[in-house]
Amino acid sequence: MSPEFVRGISAEMFKVTLLVAGPPLLVGLVVGILVGFFQTITQIQEFTLTFVPKMLAVFICLFLLMPWMSNKLITFTANLIEQIPNYIK
Question: Cystine design at 57: which of 31, 51, 63, 75 (Cβ 3.0–4.6 Å)?
Fold first, then answer.
């Protein structure tokens, strides 16, 4: 296995990881900023006000995107397993 080959597999792995983990993280970030903005405007400093909306938004995002995410992960894993004979050479 050449360094370029390992670099290619690693790049694909990081790309799939970013594609799968990115949407829930972005949703959590946007909801966190909006809740923080709301807290700043209203001067309500409550811990559950920051935690619960982010948790619900990330859960809804995961629920809606789970078929797409699982498809990406299954496709990557299937391609990786199919290519095992080429990796051994």
Answer: 31
